[in-house]
Amino acid sequence: MFRTFIYNSNITYIKRGFCERRTVLNVIKKGDVGEKVSVQGWVKSLRKQKDLTFYDINDGSTVKNLQIIVQDKSHGKINVGSSVRADGILQKSPKGQNEVNAENLVLIGGCDLNEGYPFAPRKKYAPEYVREYLHLRPQTRRFGSLLRVRHGATVAFHKYLDQIGYVCIQTPIITSNDCEGAGEVFKVVPDNVDLLKSMVKENVPLENGFFDKKSFLTVSGQLHLEAAAHALQKVYCLGPTFRAENSKTRFHLAEFYMLEIEKGFLENLSELLQTTEDIIKKVTVSLLDTYMDDINVCANENMDFSWIDKPFNIITFTEAVDILNTKLNKPTSSKGGLLKEHELLLTEYFNNRPVFVINWPKDEKPFYMKEIDDSNVAAFDLLVPKIGELVGGSLRENDFNKLKSKIPDNSNLSWYLDLRKFGSVPTGGFGLGFERYIQLILGIDNIKDTIPFPRWPHNCEL
Ligand code: 4AD
Ligand code: MG
To answer: What are the sequence ranges of the domains in the chain?
Structure first.
């Protein structure tokens, strides 16, 4: 007999011999006909027939919905968006899929569509519309899938790096250096003047009172990773990174995640390029193996992963400029490196395959990169189809005197120079934009649709 309960946390639910609660994924994949099951989730759609109501429920464990059949017409307040618990018997649908013939369907939280729930079942919405409801966005099918793929990519990076012997380092979010030296740091100051007044020391400006020096949100964990690489050799971090740049493009966020690796005893750029290529390919293959259902929901049909089987191209910066000037008729300006337009054209030129651009003019790159001659550094950018720059990396300057002459004044980096004094080794590494990687593998147009709560200029909702 079917009953509808309104959930009340004061009422103790009386178990009627139902087995432990299971996930939708688990019930869809496993179980014998006739078995008792109990699942909870949200109603994604419902169909009413004479004496039966069919509910599709989802609990986030899979993109697939589980059908719950209820033999009753008095479904009351259980409509699309509601959270429910279903207790019933597992059976097979005419198509052979597992479904639940419910004895109880318990309403946990109702969803009043008249109160302005923004999503109707089975309707497709533009990403810009969905983005207006950041707090409800995870409830959409597509964004739910995206969050699972994002999780899968996080795990895959950690797993693969662990496999090849890299140690995860928790680099600080608050730091006193601007690693990239581009003036794109957010300052960290307590929002409490009384506190600052009570702490500030003589000769320290009030706003620096908390840490006794200017402090920022990190733009990169690289310099800290270098410290760790001088003892642990192969290290990495995957954490939030902040850039105060007035960029509202499809490829920029004010807060994004960066995967950074740093390797000690690394003497040549080609080894670093190979490691970069291996990591990207291995992680992508493992995602395609494990998350195909979710990838299919997010990615457009024309996704092309053929680049996985082919070696990435390698060209020098000079060759890139030459191709742009002579073959693509898109001259670069003498200063300023490559524009996004140039990056995209170059990957198209190489048949939509990733391309490493190596050996950059030193004026285009930060102070820490290793000089290979008077005007160039051992740096690379990895450009990928439809995104442009995905990774930036380099060998690091390990010549004490050269580095000293290049370190910006007042940069609080004497400790960084120390690394070149005490057991110095050549190191190199890279930073990969995690959200741009998600854009690459899912073909997502706008980076704001790859992160749960995007921040960009004039936007810090929730
Ligand atoms: O090229 P970047 O600035 O390199 C560094 O920060 C180095 N210190 C990394 C290292 O060698 N350890 O940034 C690395 C990557 C870029 O290639 C890009 O993919 C991503 O981070 N990125 C951004 N992603 C989203 N929004 C932004 N505003 C980004 N800025 C950089
Ligand atoms: Mg860069």
So the answer is: 15-115, 138-184+219-449
